[in-house]
Every structure is written in C-alpha cells, then in structure tokens.
Amino acid sequence: MIYHNYLPNTDESRQKMLDIIGVSSQEDLFKNIPVELQKNTSLVLPESHCELEIQNRILELAQKNIWPGGYVSFLGAGCYNRYIPSVIDNILSRVEFLTAYTPYQPEISQGTLQAIYEFQTMICNLTGMDVSNASMYDGATATAEAILMSCRITKKNKTIVSRALNPETQDVIKTYLSGPDIDIITAPINEDSITDINNLFELTANKDIASIVIQVPNFLGNIEEVRKIEQIAHNAGALFVVIIDPISVGMIKPPGAYGADIVTGDGQSLGNNMMYGGPAFGFMACRQKHMRNMPGRIVGSSLDSDGNTAYTLTLQTREQHIRRDKATSNICTNHSLCALAGSIYLSIIGPKGLKEIANICFQRAHFLASKISEIEGFKIPHDNFFNEFIMILPDNLSVDVFNKEMLDRKIIPGINLNSYYHELPGAILISVTEKNKPVDLYLFLSALRELVEEYVLN
Amino acid sequence: MTKLIFEKSEQGRRGCLLPEAGVPEIDPDSAIDSSLLNEEEICLPETSELEIMRHYVELSNKNHCIEKGFYPLGSCTMKYNPKVNESICQLPRFKDLHPYLPVTFVQGTLELMYELQNFFAEITGMDKVSLQPAAGSHGEFTGMLIVKAYFKNKGEERTKVIVPDSAHGTNPASAKMCGYEILEVKSNDKGQVDIEKLEELVDDKVAAIMLTNPNTLGIFEENIQKIAEIMHKAGALLYYDGANLNAIMGIVKPGDMGFDIVHINTHKTFSTPHGGGGPGSGPVAVKDYLSDFLPVPTIDFDGESFFLKYDTPLTIGKVRSFYGNVGVLLRAYTYVLAMGKNGLKQVSMDAVLNANYLKEKLKTKFFLPYEGLCMHEFVLSGKIQKEQGVNTLGIAKRMMDFGIHPPTIYFPLIVPEAMMIEPTETESNEILDNFIEIMEQIAKEIEENPEEVLKSPHNTPVKKIDEVLAAKKPNVAYKKQ
User: Fold this and answer.
1) Does B33 touch chain A (CB under 8 A)?
2) Strand duo A299-303 + A309-313: pairing
3) Which chain A residue is nearest to residue B403, measuring alpha carbons?
4) Chain A residues whose beta carbon lies within 8 Å of the beta carbon of residue B178
5) Which of A112, B62, B131, B233 is the most buried (most CB within 10 A)?
6) Is the pLDDT of residue A1 over 70?
7) B461-470: b or e for each residue (b if 16 or more CB lie within 10 Å)?
8) Considering all CA atoms of chain A, what is the largest pairwise distance in Å, rounded to the nearest integer?
9) For residue B164, what is the enclosing H or E element?
10) Whole-number CA gyration radius for chain B
C-alpha cells in the first residue's frame, strides 16, 4: 500500500473500512466496472515526487523562463504590469478565502459573501451602473456574455462590434456567438484609429441590431466618440455595451455617465498578477432594469432570523443549477478569488489613489509619446489616448529588426499591431503603466535614438 | 456583524501612497475631450492599511474552509489543497510573465503546460488536450462547440443533445448555449441511464450525449459500453463531464469507455483551490479525430522548443483571452508530480473506500435510495427525517453547529430530500467516524425533538438567512446614505 502525505489512510484503517463494507480488497470496490475496461489502465506518468523533488523540478522549469526584472517592458494590449500592494497576496493566501467553495451555505460563508457584495458595489461605482455580478472568467468572455444578454433583452440576433476592440475579445465573441448563431457585424475604424461613426450609422439602418459594442480606451489606445455612438445605438433600439479599462476611470468618466446599458471589462489590472495571461477576472455591470437577464452569481443583502444583516446568493432562478437549459448562462464557477484581489486593490488605492495612478500612466505615456515624436523617423499618429499609443517605425526599420534591437538592449517593446491591422504597417502598440519609471522611459528613448543613427541617418 | 468597508471609510485616509509621475505634466484636456474627463472621485473606501487588513481578516473568520473542518460537498471534491502548489505560483519567473512575451522567453511555462496536456491525455485516455477553458462549465461549452463544429464540417445537421435527468445543471445549459435542443433521458431503478428510453430518443438529429461517469448518484454506469455503441451507431458523440474523475484515475479511462470528449475540473480532481467560487480550470481532451476542432492555441513542441500552435484551420476559435488559467494549471501540474502514477490510483481507491465506508455506516439512520457499491460519493435521502419534521435543509443547517460543511443538498433532482456526500481521499478514518457520530446524533435529535433542530444553526456567524427577502427585494450594492 502507498503512504503519502496527502493520504491519511493506513493499511490498518483501510482494512477496517473494507471489513465494514464487506469486501476483501480495494480492487473489489470497482467490481461494478466491466473488467475489460479495467485492462491496460496503468498510467504512464512520472513517479511520485516529494516536496523537495517538486521544488527542484519547478525551479528547473522556472529557470527556462526569463527573469522578468532583467527587462524593461512596454507590453500591454489587455494585460498589464502594474503595482500590486503587498496586502493583497497576504489576504489571498488566507485559507478561509482560498479553499472555500462557492458560498452555497450562507451561514458559514459570510466572509466570501460580504466580500462579493462589496466587490459588486465597487464595480457599480467604477462603471456607473446599478448592478454587478460576482465576476466572470475574463473581460473577453464577459463581453461575449453581455452580447448574448443584449440579444435576450432586445429579442434581436445581430450585434455590431467595433474593430477597435481587443482582437482577443473579438475572437472570443466570434466563438461564443457561433453557438446560438448570432450575426456579428464589424464596424470599421477611421484614420484616427477610432470607430468610424458614419459607417456605424449606416450599419444600424435596418434597426435589427441588439447591441453596439465599443472599448474605451479602445485597443489602439484612443478614446472613442462615446456620446455619438450612444445616440446611434439607442436610436436604433440597440443596447450600448462598453468595455473599459478600470484604471482609466481615474481620469475618464464611467460609462454610466454617457449612457451605457451594459459595461464589461477585465480586472487583471486590479491587483492580479499577469501569470502568462490568467487567471484574473472579468466584470459585468448593467442597469437595474436588466438585472434579471444578467448571467452569473449575484450576492444580495438580507436579514437573518435575529434580524441582523446577512448576505446570500440571490436571484438564483437565472442560474443553471435551478433553470438548467433555460438559464441566462451556463457559468457556475467564476473567478471569485481574483475578484477578491480586485476588491482589496480598490479598497487600498481608494478614490485618490485611482486618480493618481491614472494620472501617472497618462502623464508618463504622453511624455514618452511626445519625446518619441521628436526623434527623426518615428511617428506618433494620434494624441487622443490614455496610457497606450501607436508608434510608427521609420520606413527602413522593420518590426522584426526593431524588436531584436530592443531585446538586445533589454527592452521589450509593445506588440506588433500590423499582425491584427493590415492598414497599420510598422505600428507598435506601446503601453505605459505606473511600473514604467521615468528612467525606463529615458532608456527607451535613448534606444530609439541609437536606432536612428543606424537605420534612419545611414 | 461586520460593517462594510465603505462604512469604515473616512475622507482623507490612505491605504497606500503612490509616487509622482516624475515627468513634465500636461493638462489632460489637451488630449482627451474635456467633457469626458472625470472631475469627481469614484466612491471607493478610504481606509488605512491596518483597517483593510483587519476588515478582511474579520471576514475570513466567517468562512468555513477545508483546513477548518470536514467539507463533504458532493460533486465538488473538496480535497486538501497542498501548500507547495501555492508557493510555486509566487515565483516571479511564473507570475510576472506577460502573455505576449516572445515564446523563447517562456519555455519553462510552455514545457510545463505541454507536459500537463500529456498528463491529462494519459489519465483520460484521450489524444489531444486544450488547457484554455477557465472552469468546468466553460469546458462543457468548449466541448459542445467542438461537437457542433465536427458535424458542421461533416455536413450533418444535428440539433439535439441528450442529458440524463441526474445531470449537473451546467450540462443542459452549456448545450443550450451552443444552440442545441435538450432531450432528457430518464434514469432506471438502479440510478443509471435507462437504455430502452435512450434508444427511443436517439435518431440522426442527435449530436451527443453528455454523461458523468460515475454519475451524480455516485454510481458507475455499468452499461457504458452499450450506451457508447448506441450513440456511435447513430453517428453521435459521447461527452464526458469530468466532475467525478476523482473516482477512476488509474482504474478506468473515459477514452476506453467510448467517450469522444472529456473535460477535467482541476479544482476538483487536481487539488487546485476553489477560491470561494473560482478561479478553476476546465481543460478539454478529445480523441484524434476531433483534435482539429480544439480551441487555439494549443501548446506544441517541434523537437527543439515549445510554441503556441495557432495553425489549426478547423478550430472553433478562442474561448477566452490568452492561453488558460496558467496559475491554476501550475498547481495541477505540481499535484500530478506529487502523487505520481501510483499515487493517483491510490487517490481514487481511497476516495471510493472512504465513500463506501460512510455509506455503510450512515444507511442505518438515513434512507439510501440506491443500494450497492458506490464510487467516490453517494446520495442519501432525508425522507425519513422529513416525516419526523426536519427536512434536508434543516439537517444541513444543524451540521454547521458541529463545524461541518453540509453535503450538496437537493441534488441530484431525482432523489427527494437528497444529500450528496463526497468525503474525498484526504480525510482520515477518525474524521469519518466523527462525522458518522454527528449524523447519528442529528438523526436522534430529530426523532426526539425536531422543533429544536429546526432552530439551527446556533454556532454560526449569522443565523438562518431569509433568502426569499433577498430575492424579492434585491439589494445587490451598497448605496451611501
């Protein structure tokens, strides 16, 4: 028999239990499984590792990844290197939050439930909406679910999504909407790298559109003409769905202020590690009148039998475990612990901190952009951005060469936009966060100046 | 009662300080339409760092968790979550990696994911794996999209999906999201799929059946080969809901049973923490002939290095941003290493042993609707106790007074007053005996004084909660007075 630190049974206790059950061996417990299915089932897997051996193997793998501190990075595009206050990891490592299940039994889950209620409140305040759910997997799936929700509400089955949405989000929307066969119309962008309003207006002409979906700031960093788009959406009887970067709300009004009906976004920026892309969380908030069409868990405040405030999962008749195929979504497990990180983050930074972080990102990004535009050959086509912007490389410097030169200088530049937008050759999306110190910006600028010597002037 | 963090707020308090921008500043309205600039502050708490720590520590004390006590929540596999899994996730070489780094910078993470794909393929008896889905039901959705893409590619129009009446609610909900009509197949008196009824339902419009095996009653579907034969003969596929995979590792593989698609819940079988409702992870494994439909990217190896494979023309596309819940997958990988091939088999054997032991002991006081050996979980009915005046909800609330998390209740729907009990392999015999004693005591209390039992719970942070009020007058966000 096997002894393992995760398995408390001993041969003696196993025998005792087998005797009570009335079988002679553990193998006999499986006699209801046809024997022919139990042949050749020994697993080709590693042998058991003790903790020391695990650590050795994991460190060996970790060594094959770069040391992130050895590079200055300007990668963003939906996942951001941000300040994570120490308090967050400290609280998340508490087993009471970490190893609890979904709070089905409210009397012994008040910690999780109250934390989610506070989370919902913070998301409502960040988005300017009335109701938030308890979290979604990520911003992309939250947006896809928002479109499904808009189709349920309007009873229409077409949606318009801006081409300036994060391409990953566009891909996920396409996959999700292939299920129920909802048509997606992609609204083009104009020369300012924002959604083309004239085109959008034409696309809504026959008024069978369930929703118009935009991102603010959009994937290319720029601020959309939100009020005009709101009018087009509502004149067409469509819902106005807005995806936000939650940090940007420290500077830009929440979508509730400009007429959004549903707001979604990715919460990675709110206290979650990048972790090679996951897990973080998605959020979704809406107007009161659409509450019963929301997918996912929602926590409500109620009273216990002593008349004290207590929290519980509520409006569960929307959900799969009650309504099965008539539920608003199949979502069950969401990203609760990541959402908790979001709540703690927002509690720590507070209203002033949010403004300050937004301002640091905005100022440093605009400073960097203005200095880049002074360097011969490099262009910054737009200035209508928050903290991410397009930089156009000199004609005779290809993206591949640029990337290699920068990596040689221990700088990871932004992503190559041309792989998503054919009309933007030589375009790099640069992201600046509070983690990019002023000295990092100077490093980036001096690298560009070196490249000018080599590739522009010669 | 803990005040809300908003109620502890006082204007001007800071939870953290931030540096200056450190560059010459411009006026934001020189770049952004001034009517969009947010002049007001967002309503967020203003508290000191200590106050925040105290708040969340106080909240955490109101939660049950695995380390506090027994957590026999059926179908959820609340096994111990090893701590080495947590510490590896704190390594900067894992946690501080941006998803768009060049793949040459992240070979360690990719190697780990590649190996994990292979581990899951081996355990489930399938050929190819996608680690993308974020949770079990997300895996189901992915799997059913694969079914849809498979038939579309074959040029067959199939519109229906069969689920048993004992299935998890996510199964019909996931199939519905893919546009399928749901047909429910009844269970027979042994708690298994009724073969005759199944045959009546199957025709050339049926795309798939979604099954959990062992099923939600904790019973192995003995006729699984016959079911597979019926479905495959009709050209339909078999989908395996991996919620109950903890019962069969190293014993029998879903692939050998005839399943075509499998999802795995790493937060059940592979010890990753549930986090109060996620994040989990729901990898999907398929047989070779379905591998072209998997979501992109998968992790591949060209003999020299690992890479993200996007070149899959028939793919269903992307089901989420980036590549999967990598932080969760790291933990699952570590768990497979810790148990190893023999350990995983022992996991299933001990999980099944513990469940059968509890069932034998508890069936003397509580009604057992389906006799015989169970797998890793079993379902009791509280109907005897209900007749005595306390329903299953009442029993569940009383358990809390003893520091035990109640089992899953009122599910599966086919058992009245159901209590679905899953002890897992990480519980010792003493814990099981203690649970048996408590259950016997509760049964005795119900016989003697049911009114008193109905006043439970007594020892919990709050008393019984008015859930009707919560739904009737929804209060889902705090409004400052």
Assistant:
1) yes
2) antiparallel
3) A108
4) 179-180
5) A112
6) no
7) bbbbbbbebb
8) 87
9) strand B160-164
10) 25
The answer to whether A262 and A238 are in contact (CB under 8 A) is no
Collect all residues of chain A within an 8 Å Cβ-Cβ radius of residue B8.
none
The dihedrals phi and psi of A12, each to the nearest 5 degrees, come to -65, -50
Please tell me the predicted confidence (pLDDT) of residue B1. 85
Contact between residue A347 and residue B47 where contact means Cβ atoms under 8 Å apart: yes
Per-residue pLDDT band at A322 (split at 50, 70, 90)? confident
Which of A2, A3, A6, A119 to mutate to test binding with chain B, by most B CBs within 10 Å of its CB? A6
Number of Cβ pairs < 8 A linking chain A and chain B: 692
Residues linked to residue B163 through DSSP beta bridges, in sequence order: B184
Burial class from Cβ neighbours inside 10 Å (0-12, 13-18, 19+) for residue A41 reads middle
Look at phi and psi of residue A107 and say left if phi exceeds 0, alpha if psi is from -120 to 50, else beta: alpha
Cα end-to-end span (Å), chain B: 19
Percent of chain A predicted with pLDDT > 90: 92
CA distance A219 to A299: 32
DSSP A328-376: S----S--HHHHHHHHHHHHHHHHHHHHHHHHHHHHHHHHHHHHHHTST
**Residue B16 has which token pair?**
């953290």
Mean pLDDT of chain A: 96
Q: What pLDDT, in 10s, does the model give residues A7-54?
A: 999 999 999 999 999 999 999 999 999 999 998 778 999 999 999 999
Q: Cβ contacts (< 8 Å) between B182 and chain A: which residues?
A: 324-325
Cross-strand pairs, A266: A282
Q: Indicate the residue type of A32.
A: N
Give the pLDDT score at A279: 98
Q: What is the mean pLDDT of residues A378-400?
A: 97
pLDDT on residue A324: 86
DSSP state of A109: B
- Could you give the 3-state DSSP secondary structure of residue A73? strand
Rounded Cα distance, B222 and B240, in Å: 15
| Pairwise CB contact (< 8 Å): B225 & A281 | no
B414-444 burial, b if ≥16 CB within 10 A, otherwise e? bbebbbbbbbbbbbebebbebbbebbeebbe
pLDDT band for A317, please (50, 70, 90 cuts): confident
Write the ipTM: 0.97
Report the distance separating Cα A397 and Cα B286, nearest Å: 44
Phi and psi at residue B137, to the nearest 5°: -70, -25
Separation between Cα atoms, residue B284 and residue B32, nearest integer Å: 44
Task: Name every chain A residue with its beta carbon within 8 A of the beta carbon of B42.
Answer: 125-126, 249-250, 254, 351, 354
- Which residue of chain A comes nearest to B119, CA vs CA? A45
CB contact under 8 A, A301 and B476: yes
Among candidates B55, B323, B400 on the partner chain, residue whose Cβ is nearest the Cβ of A107 = B400
Q: Across the interface, do A349 and B274 touch by the CB < 8 Å criterion?
A: no
pLDDT tens digit sequence for A133-180: 999 999 999 999 999 999 999 999 999 999 999 999 999 999 999 989
Low-confidence ranges of chain B (pLDDT < 50): none
**B474:A314 CB<8 A:** yes
User: Is B250 in Cβ contact with A43 (below 8 Å)?
Assistant: yes
Using CA atoms, how far residue B13 sits from A342, A458, B6, B40, B459, in Å, is 19, 56, 12, 17, 36
Contact A139, A169 (CB under 8 A): yes
pLDDT value for A300: 97
The pLDDT tens digits for B416-457 are: 999 999 999 999 999 999 999 999 999 999 999 999 999 999
Can you give the pTM of this predicted structure?
0.97
Phi-psi group of A407: left, alpha or beta (phi > 0 → left; psi -120 to 50 → alpha; rest → beta): alpha
Query: Which of B91, B249, B463 faces A62 most closely, judged by CB atoms?
Result: B91
